[in-house]
Automatic annotation (TrEMBL):
Residue span, Proline dehydrogenase domain: 103-428
Gene3D superfamilies (alphabetical): 3.20.20.220
Bias-annotated ranges (Polar residues): 131-150
GO cellular component terms, semicolon-separated: mitochondrion
Chain's role: Converts proline to delta-1-pyrroline-5-carboxylate.
Species classification: Eukaryota, Fungi, Dikarya, Ascomycota, Pezizomycotina
Keywords: FAD, Flavoprotein, Oxidoreductase, Proline metabolism
Name of this chain's protein: Proline dehydrogenase
Organism: Aspergillus tamarii
Amino acid sequence: MLNADCRHDPRWLCRDGSTVSGPKDQLPPHSLLPGKMLWRSLLVATISSHPWLLTPALRTLSLIAHPRLSFLDVNKNAILRGILKTTFYNHFCAGEKAAEVTGTIDRIKHMGFRGVILTYAREIVVDASSQKVNNPTTNNEKANAQTTKSPEVEAWRQGVLETVEMVGTDDFLALKLTGADPQVMHALSSNQPLPEQMIFALQDVCTRAIERNTRIFVDAEQQSVQSGIDAVALDLMRRYNRNGTAVVYNTYQAYLKSTPENLLSHLGIADKEGFTLGVKLVRGAYINSEPRHLINDTKQGTDDSYNAIAAGILRRQYGFFGVERQFPSAELFLATHNKESALAADSLYKERLATGQPTTKVQYGQLLGMADEVSCRLLQLRDDSSQAAQKASPEVYKCLSWGTLGDCVSYLLRRAVENRDAVGRTKQEYYALKTEARRRIKNMFSLRW
């Protein structure tokens, strides 16, 4: 139990003393990984943790993502396609076809994960900074944009609806709004209403997701469009997050200076209008962000922000909510690769349940192929001894992207860059995977004797 002074300081979430320790005879977290996943993870971690391997790998992936020569095009080079598909693609992605995706999902759930977060990998490349927010638009241009059907929006709608059919009860569908077309990007960057076709597409997607008991994440994107995305997410929550349940979640990036105040504002809107605020909390990526927007240029600054927000929502005390005014209806999803944050949040949640204090429903998620030590450690905390213990056990998800190999190359490149930027965590994962591989080899030879 933490002392009173520690509990009132949200930074306690970062401290080693707050993490949950398991039995001494408990197997390491990576022991939960199936054999094929373990060896593939070790291969990727070996490359990611050694600069002399990662640097050429990044250059190669970048060339493949933007091929100028036919032999670098995965759609034309069968050998290159085979190598990439059986290694990086299968490690980070769910599959190219529905059968592959559902097979991956079944394997993930068989490991003990509560469910998956599935996203359609198709993207468009648009320079948001070139979208003129104050660019005057005539009435005729607006009318044409509303009446002209965009094949890109229709392709996005069909792809996302196909994604919905692959997920089931309690899974999540992740929406990347800028994956539709440039008109949608322009509307978001200029805080204008979405094209009518896109509005109807979102309605179709949400309706079908609800029919399949699937929830929805609205992904955060670059700062030039984030205000517009927030507005769309709030509109969806007004419509679908009723009766104390979150169907739609907005994404909040802890590394931005504006996030604490932005979240407080959204809690106020939810309180006033009577809907449940779905909060997906991520640390965020520094790519395409101006320094003036960053909460801190150090990892610790972002960690402190992330943990303070998480602790406030779990305690149901954030800003003046929970003190001067009743805390509104909310649900929390912690998307984090930081083990200390995840374990400490789980500890705080269980502590409040055990002492009868109000708290917020929380779930956890990590990307497929990354932070398996975090995911598996949370899975090891599951307690099926009683109904109350099951309720307090962490519900863990894996985030998957699906699409053709060509569609996913840019996604694979981003994952590789993330591994490069998270040097400490990548090396830690590499050593843990190597230790687990040695343990299994040793056990295998022991059984033979």
